[in-house]
Amino acid sequence: MKHTRIKELLDSNEFGKEFIVKGWVKTFRNNQFLAINDGSCLSNLQIVIGINEFEDQQVKKLHTGAAIAVKGILTESQGKGQRVELKATCLEILGESDPDKFPLQPKKHSLEFLREIAHLRFRTTTFNAIFKVRNALAFAVHQFFNERGFVYIHTPIITGSDAEGAGEMFQVTTLDLDQPARNDKGEIDYKEDFFGKQTNLTVSGQLEGELAAMALGNIYTFGPTFRAENSNTTRHLAEFWMIEPEMAFYDNNDNMDLAEELLKYVIKYALETCPDEIEFLKNRQAEEDKKKPQNERAAMNLTEKLEFCLLNDFERISYTEAIEILKRSKPNQKKQFKYLIDGWGVDLQSEHERYLVEKHFKKPVILSDYPADIKAFYMRQNEVDEQGRKTVAAMDILFPGIGEIVGGSQREERYDVLTKRMDEMNIPQHEMDWFLDTRRFGTAPHAGFGLGFERLVLFVTGMTNIRDVIPFPRFPKSAEF
Amino acid sequence: MKHTRIKELLDSNEFGKEFIVKGWVKTFRNNQFLAINDGSCLSNLQIVIGINEFEDQQVKKLHTGAAIAVKGILTESQGKGQRVELKATCLEILGESDPDKFPLQPKKHSLEFLREIAHLRFRTTTFNAIFKVRNALAFAVHQFFNERGFVYIHTPIITGSDAEGAGEMFQVTTLDLDQPARNDKGEIDYKEDFFGKQTNLTVSGQLEGELAAMALGNIYTFGPTFRAENSNTTRHLAEFWMIEPEMAFYDNNDNMDLAEELLKYVIKYALETCPDEIEFLKNRQAEEDKKKPQNERAAMNLTEKLEFCLLNDFERISYTEAIEILKRSKPNQKKQFKYLIDGWGVDLQSEHERYLVEKHFKKPVILSDYPADIKAFYMRQNEVDEQGRKTVAAMDILFPGIGEIVGGSQREERYDVLTKRMDEMNIPQHEMDWFLDTRRFGTAPHAGFGLGFERLVLFVTGMTNIRDVIPFPRFPKSAEF
């Protein structure tokens, strides 16, 4: 007889029928009421253990964390809090859990403590909910692009190019660090390394994604990317997952349309498929908020915040317009911003982005057409404006609480303009010959963007530390498990 | 006016309506018939260019590979080979393609040549088909697990553990290779490295996957894995993608059921959603086969081979039974095997696996219960048999042409048995304490398997070199693009 998953059983009406369930003990009350969970849903199944029906030796082992198999009869529950329960007829302890040693007791543990036992935190309700939402969002991403005929492309993780300059990179090598091969000049001899040259972990799949888009039309990547930056913050990881769609024949407006559609699609999918998880996380956040001073509390609860993004058309304004709004804004006039806005050309800080979204427009904002000098070489240059300002067809999407969640642009497809820009920025053309081939042969307007997956999960779960939304976070001085 | 993708237009019946299409020129015949492709499907759209209706200068630029935008009227085609065509009313060259320089001319190029221009090979029909099938298989994997309530887990790419010993690893470091930090003893000082210890690229997400399964029940991974092995073959990559499901409360039979179901599901999905691509690849393979001597040709064409896997129940036999069959087999008796089978305990070679599948059973085969000595430490030990032979509850799925496509096992959940085995194999327990915690607290039977994604794509596309089924292959001395 096969076992039935608890999620199925909780929805079942087959009262009087016998089932086997397997799972882990969450609590055991009054030597009679056992709550078990098998990971299939957030809710536990209540199992009723008839008094004196089982051997004492077995009952004594029903500690939190123990794995058990139970055969029993499904019945309507008389108690509060559950519709069904299982009257146990047969009980087997699969794996014990010594209550003096098992770190997860039925009480509230701090997130800091749980991070240290990331291999066990999956067993808490909070992390069960987080990783279910993460799973739903990942699937929604694939489904969104699949429905629209996009091709999922696996861009390389190990790369020999470091031209994008998006950040510090990790080196990948099979050389003996103690005694690396050296050439005649005494330099490290990368010809002897595995790939015959120096290689790194990728910081972005965009450039390779463009190669595919200039043939397959619409593509997306969804893979790990890396930054070797010494940032010990709640917002940065050394290893994180990115979604990077790239579309031939799209301009920057098409790009914004797609990004807005994607964000709404995946948030809606999470709300629809994880109602219990999001309800739990909403309540969790509300409780956390109570501990904070009034002015630090979230303006919206989790579901309100998610619906805020679903129900509003994202406001689209140019960087130049945003600077005007920010200059005239109260916090700028009253010098409440940490970084005061006094002119065109500066990069926006999180406080400015949040002001635009949360105070000024009260809806998600898409900022476009940033100064060329603060953006990457591959972004398409706009016509110089009347004031002689150089901008690029970039676009960033700003969300409440979190600031930038998407960054993208139309790409510079004009060979001459692109190579001139590369020269200005000291990017060696000969190393990027393969990339330039897309501009040499059948070049065409195209655009794309990047969505940091953990940022998205952070937003949808209402968590505040990015280390809590990826199973095993990597950050400076930590690569545990 | 937005452009319409060619796939849509080829299915349209809106004759007489005006459309815009954008794509790349494949061929231009008689200064009149233009075939263009935008990556949305394998088929090209025929565009009719009225003679003398367009400027000579434009028409002269309609070379293979040029990107163009065309406005025109959809009409029923009078010619053979297509149902619809577009009568051009307006023509714009977006990006030229110099026929003296563009490497992809409308003729057959060798796969070897195309591997050297992997950034452009997406533009060939063959690679368009391959990457569409790859995309379909990836989506099918996610959909299969999503429908069954599995949780997609992103296991870490950078890992501090090298306990599995599945192969040579790549080191990940931010130390200066030329002058790495050293400690008092003159040894490399990994405390100064980014993660404060030596780290590598993962060879498998299984161990971390087990941690998640022992809480969330059923999980799967789908991510990149790495081997720094100096294997310059058509079957090995240094960077490849793996799917690794892990299921709590599954025994090895449940494991086989799931793996068989998964393989059939994804193959069926590819056949249903990529009929044109698979037809094209079938014909391609048939043409390749014609060049080979009779005895090297495939016994089945591509669709026959795929249906062979769909329609047959996979044969399930033990390693011990397989050895008996192989010992008595003709090629063994006639000494035609390169590696003769003369006793129990040896590992099977590809020739043996293929004999079992293609000659003996004529169906996919699941081999189980391998000798413990040739398998990994984490596989569950069976009862010692009457001959005193030690086996483990492993299972490998063997496919025609390709040999092993899936490898898995029930996991050793018994703490004492596992730690004893680790000691025997010199695997340091203290480095694996987190892994052993799953056996200390609420341990339970569980099982899982690994499916090499590129092996699967190789099988379903009928290609013969694994470097042709991943966009940018990484192998010894090569990390291009």
UniProtKB/TrEMBL annotation, chains A, B:
PROSITE patterns: AA_TRNA_LIGASE_II (PS50862). One of its GO terms (molecular function) is asparagine-tRNA ligase activity. The keyword Zinc-finger does not apply. The keyword DNA damage does not apply. It is an enzyme of class 6 (ligase). It is found in: Cytoplasm. Keywords: Aminoacyl-tRNA synthetase, ATP-binding, Cytoplasm, Ligase, Nucleotide-binding, Protein biosynthesis. Residues 131-471 form the Aminoacyl-transfer RNA synthetases class-II family profile domain. CDD domains: AsxRS_core, EcAsnRS_like_N. Pfam families: tRNA-synt_2 (PF00152), tRNA_anti-codon (PF01336). Its main location: cytoplasm. It comes from the Bacteria. NCBIfam families: asnS (TIGR00457), PRK03932.1 (NF003037). Belongs to the class-II aminoacyl-tRNA synthetase family. Homodimer. HAMAP family: Asn_tRNA_synth. PANTHER family: ASPARAGINE--TRNA LIGASE, MITOCHONDRIAL-RELATED, ASPARTYL/LYSYL-TRNA SYNTHETASE. This is Asparagine--tRNA ligase. It comes from Albibacterium profundi. The lineage of its organism: Bacteria, Pseudomonadati, Bacteroidota, Sphingobacteriia, Sphingobacteriales. The gene is asnS.
